[in-house]
Specification:
The complex is a heterodimer of chains A (598) and B (179). By secondary structure, chain A is an alpha/beta fold. Chain A contains 23 helices and 20 strands. The chains are: A alpha/beta (598), B alpha+beta (179).
C-alpha cells in the first residue's frame, strides 16, 4: 500500500497507512520540523517512512545521548518541543542520561523509541529492554503503544504533556509490529488530547493581591527568578523587566534563569548560590521579603537550609505544586505559570498605585552597593598565562554585538561562563543545571544551531567534558553546523580538582586529564578549523579567527591549570559564609556535615 | 528554618486510569523518593472509564505528606488524590484470612475468640480453621495477636481500603453510566 502513497492525496483523511506513516503525519500535525535520531532494527519502518517524507528533517547523531541533548538545545533555544527517534534496547538505554537531564531542567522533549514486536516483549528478544520500566522515573510520562489505534492519540497526548505545565521529557515506546500495522489516521477531536492532563497555569487574583501587598510593605526586598521564567516564553522575561523597572527591587537569577533580566540591568545582582555573587547571596540572606519566580530552592542555591534567608517572608510562584515547601517553607505559595503571575502582579501593583518605599529602598541599595564593592568576581590576569575567567570575559566582550547562543559542559568552565558571560535575552543560555551532565554542551549546541541557523553558537567547554561526547564533531561536520567549540583547557577535571584541594587535603585522585588529543589535529581530522591560544597575547587573535570562520571551529584555550572558581559557598555552609578567594579557604574549613554533601 | 515535626499516619485515596504500569508508577514514586508505604490496596472500581482506586497508608512528617500528595497529583494517569486523614472523618477496613493449626482446648478457644470478633469460619479440618475477619487495622491486629498464642498460624491481609463518611461522593465513578 505504500506504493500508492503518491497518488493517495485525494483521499488523505481516510486512507489506510502504516503506523510508521501515521507517526510522521502526526508529528507534522504537531509542527515538528526536525528529528534528532539514530536508526536501528526496531525503528526501520519509521526510517523507511522518513525516507519518503519531505517535510521533516532528520539529524543523524553519533550517539543516542547526544540526540536527546541536541533536542534539549533545540527546545531551549526555540521554545518548541524537541523530538528524538532511537531504536530499542541500547538506543533507548543510551538516551536515559539525556532524558534525566531534560526532566531535571524541565525541558519539553518527545523521545520515540523502537521496541521489539508486541508478541516478543518479555522474551529477552534481541535488543529488547524494558524501556518504559527503565524510563519511568526519568520522564514526565511514558507510554508503550500496544495497538495501532492508540498510536496517534498517544502521540498527541504526549506532545501536550511534554509542553504544558512544568515541561519535561516524554517517551513513546513503539513496538515494530505497530509501526507496520495498517491504520486509518484519526481526526483530532477537540478536548480529547487535553482531557487527562490539565495543569493549573492561571494564578489566583487574591493571592497575587496578597503578594503585591507583601511587596509594598517590604523594606529589604529581593526578586529571585529561575528557569520557570525562561520556560514560560519570552513574554515572561519582558514582564519581569517591567516588574523590576516598576519596583526598583534588586534581582538575582538562578543558573537556569540567566537572561530573564539583562545582565546589564542595574538592578541585576548576578547569579546567586554556590558560585553566585557576594552581593546576590548577601541580599538573599538579609532580605525581609523574597519573591521567588519560577525557581525551586535548589540545594545549589540555598546552601545550608537552616540558615537560608533567616528573616524573610517568602512568596513562591511555581507551576509545579510539588515544588512548594519541598526544600524551603514559604509564606505565600502561588501555583501558576511564572509569566502569567508576573504579568498579573504588575497589573495589581499598578492598580494599587504602588510606590516603593523610597527611603527604605535607598538604604537597602546602599547596603547592597557596599557588598558590591567587595568586587567578588575580580581576578588577577597578570603574566602571560591565560586566566579562564579572562578568556570567557573576552569571549563575551568580543561577541556582544552578535546573536550569540552559549551552551556549556559541566564544571568550573560552566560556572565561569555563568559568571563572566552576560546574557541580555532569554533562550540564549543552555546549560545542564539540575543533572550536571558532562558532555551536554556539544550536542546541545548542535541542536541550538539546527534551530537557529543564523545564530552564533558557542559551546564553552572544559577539555574533560568535551571528551565525553566529542564524537558529535562528526555530526557537525556532516551537516556543516558552524558551532564554535571554545575549550577552557586546564588539563584537569577542574571542579573535581578544586573540591579535592579544598575538602580532601589536596589528594588529586584520578582528576587529571591524561592523554589528551591534539585538539587542532582532532579538528582537522574532521575537516574543521583548529586553533590554539597558549598565552594571553594569543587570546584575542584566536577568538577573532574563530568568529571569522564560517564552519565549525575547535579553539583550544590553554589556561591556568590550578585556578579555582570563586566566590564559593562551601557545601554545608550558609549564604553569609562565602569563600571569596584562595586566601579565604584556610580560614573557613568545610564542616563534617558539609563533607557528606555533593 | 528547620521545623522539627512528628511523623503522622495518613490514609490517601488515589483514583487512576487502570492502564499498564500505573501501579509501578505510584510505587516507584514512593521508593524513588524515600517515602514509606505501610499498606497499599488497588482494584478497578470503574469498569466504564477503566479507573482504579488505590488506598495507601503512609507515614511521614506533614511536609512529606504534602509532598507525597503533590507528587501523586502531578502524574498524568492520576485523576483524584484525597487525604482521608485530613478531610473529615472516614472509614477504614481491611480483611484478613487467618489460618490456625491446633487441637484440643486451643481449638475451642480459637472458636470462642473468633465469635467475639465476629470472624467467620470459612474452612475447617480436624486440626485447623481458616477465619475471615474484617475491621479496622487495630481490630485485625488484635485478633491475629490472640490467635498467635493458639497454634501455628498463617495470615493473609488485604491492607487498608478506605472511604469518606457522609453524603458526598468525593471521588465519583461513572460505573454503568454509558452502558
Amino acid at each position: 500500500m505504500t506504493a500508492k502513497a503518491d497518488t493517495a492525496e485525494q483521499n488523505d483523511e481516510t486512507r489506510a497507512m502504516t503506523g510508521a506513516e501515521a507517526i510522521l503525519k502526526v508529528l507534522e500535525e504537531e509542527g515538528v520540523e526536525v528529528i534528532f535520531g539514530y536508526p536501528g532494527g526496531a525503528v526501520l519502518p519509521i526510517y523507511d517512512a522518513l525516507f519518503k517524507n519531505n517535510s521533516i528533517r532528520h539529524i543523524l547523531v553519533r550517539h543516542e545521548q547526544a540526540a536527546v541533548h541536541a533536542a534539549e538545545g533545540y527546545a531551549r533555544s526555540t521554545g518548541k518541543t524537541g523530538v528524538v527517534l532511537v531504536t530499542s534496547g541500547p538506543g533507548a538505554t543510551n538516551a536515559v542520561t539525556g532524558l534525566t537531564d531534560a526532566l531535571m531542567d524541565s525541558i519539553p522533549v518527545i523521545c520515540l523509541t523502537g521496541q521489539v514486536p508486541t508478541h516478543l516483549i518479555g522474551n529477552d528478544a534481541f535488543q529488547e529492554a524494558d524501556t518504559t520500566g527503565i524510563t519511568r522515573p526519568c520522564t514526565k510520562h511514558n507510554y508503550l503503544v500496544k495497538t495501532v489505534e492508540a498510536l496517534v492519540p498517544t502521540v498527541r497526548e504526549a506532545f501536550h504533556v511534554a509542553a504544558k505545565g512544568r515541561p519535561g521529557p516524554v517517551v513513546i515506546d513503539l513496538p515494530k509490529d505497530i509501526q507496520l500495522a495498517e491504520t486509518v489516521f484519526p481526526d483530532r477531536v477537540a478536548g480529547v488530547t487535553e482531557r487527562r492532563y490539565q495543569p493549573k497555569v492561571e494564578p489566583e487574583r487574591a493571592l497575587i493581591r496578597q503578594a503585591a501587598e507583601m511587596l509594598a510593605s517590604a523594606k529589604q526586598p529581593v526578586i529571585y527568578g529561575g528557569g520557570g521564567i525562561i520556560n514560560s516564553g519570552p513574554a515572561a522575561s519582558d514582564a519581569l523587566r517591567e516588574l523590576v523597572a516598576l519596583t526598583g527591587f534588586p534581582t538575582t537569577l538562578t543558573l537556569m534563569g540567566l537572561g530573564a533580566l539583562p545582565a546589564t540591568d542595574k538592578h541585576f545582582l548576578g547569579m546567586l548560590g554556590m558560585h553566585g555573587t557576594y552581593e546576590a547571596n548577601l541580599t538573599m540572606y538579609h532580605c525581609d521579603v523574597m519573591l521567588n519566580l519560577g525557581a525551586r530552592f535548589d540545594d545549589r542555591v540555598t546552601g545550608r537550609t537552616s540558615d537560608f534567608s533567616p528573616n524573610s517572608k517568602r512568596i513562591h510562584v511555581d507551576i509545579d505544586p510539588s515544588s512548594i515547601n519541598k526544600n524551603i517553607t514559604v509564606d505565600l505559595p502561588i501555583i501558576a505559570d511564572a509569566g502569567r503571575a508576573i504579568t498579573m502582579l504588575v497589573e495589581e501593583l499598578k492598580s494599587m498605585g504602588f510606590k516603593p518605599d523610597k527611603t527604605a529602598l535607598d538604604k537597602w541599595w546602599g547596603a547592597i552597593d557596599n557588598w558590591k564593592k567587595v568586587n567578588c568576581l575580580s581576578f588577577d590576569q597578570t603574566g602571560e598565562v591565560i586566566k579562564p575567567q579572562h578568556a570567557i570575559h573576552r569571549l563575551w566582550e568580543m561577541t556582544r554585538d552578535q546573536k550569540v547562543y552559549v551552551t556549556t559542559e559541566v564544571g568550573q568552565h560552566q560556572m565561569w561562563a555563568a559568571q563572566y558571560f552576560g546574557f541580555d535575552e532569554p533562550n540564549r543560555w543552555m546549560t545542564s543545571g539540575g543533572l550536571g551532565t558532562m558532555g551536554y554542551g556539544l550536542p546541545a549546541a548542535m541542536g541550538v544551531q539546527v534551530g537557529n541557523p543564523d545564530g552564533l553558537v558557542i559551546d564553552i567547554a572544559g577539555e574533560a567534558s568535551f571528551m565525553m561526547n566529542m564524537q558529535e564533531m562528526s555530526t557537525l561536520a556532516q551537516y556543516g553546523l558552524p558551532v564554535k567549540m571554545f575549550i577552557i583547557n586546564n588539563e584537569w577535571m577542574g571542579m573535581v580538582r578544586q573540591w579535592q584541594e579544598l575538602i580532601h587535603g589536596g589528594r588529586y585522585s584520578e582528576s587529571y586529564s591524561a592523554s589528551l588529543p591534539d585538539f587542532i589535529k582532532l579538528a582537522e581530522s574532521f575537516g574543521m578549523k583548529g586553533l590554539r591560544a597558549n598565552t594571553v597575547d594569543d587570546l584575542d587573535g584566536v577568538i577573532e579567527a574563530m568568529l571569522a570562520e564560517d564552519g565549525p571551529v575547535v579553539a583550544d584555550i590553554r589556561v591556568a591549570k590550578e585556578e579555582n572558581c570563586f566566590p564559593m559557598i562551601p557545601s554545608g555552609a550558609a549564604h553569609n559564609e562565602m569563600l571569596l578567594g584562595p586566601n579565604d579557604k584556610a580560614a573557613k574549613p568545610v564542616s563534617e556535615e558539609g563533607m557528606v554533601l555533593v | 528554618m528547620v521545623i522539627k515535626e512528628q511523623v503522622e499516619r495518613h490514609t490517601i485515596s488515589v483514583q487512576v486510569d487502570n492502564e499498564p504500569g500505573v501501579l509501578a508508577r505510584v510505587i516507584g514514586l514512593f521508593s524513588g523518593r524515600g517515602y514509606n508505604i505501610d499498606s497499599l490496596t488497588v482494584s478497578e472500581v470503574d469498569t466504564t472509564s477503566r479507573q482504579s482506586r488505590i488506598s495507601i497508608v503512609t507515614i511521614g512528617t506533614p511536609l512529606v505528606i504534602e509532598q507525597i500528595k503533590a507528587q501523586l497529583h502531578r502524574m498524568v494517569p492520576v485523576h483524584h488524590v484525597r487525604d482521608l486523614t485530613t478531610s473529615g472523618s472516614h472509614i477504614e477496613r481491611e480483611l484478613a484470612l487467618v489460618k490456625v493449626v491446633n487441637s484440643g482446648e486451643k481449638r475451642i478457644e480459637a472458636l470462642r475468640i473468633a465469635d467475639t470478633f465476629r470472624a467467620r469460619t470459612i474452612d475447617s479440618t480436624l486440626s485447623s480453621f481458616v477465619f475471615e475477619i474484617t475491621g479496622n487495622s487495630s481490630k485485625v491486629e488484635a485478633f491475629i495477636d490472640l490467635m498467635a498464642s493458639l497454634g501455628e498460624m498463617e495470615v493473609s491481609r488485604t491492607g487498608v481500603s478506605a472511604i469518606s463518611r457522609g453524603a458526598t461522593a468525593d471521588m465519583p465513578i461513572s460505573h454503568g453510566a454509558e452502558e
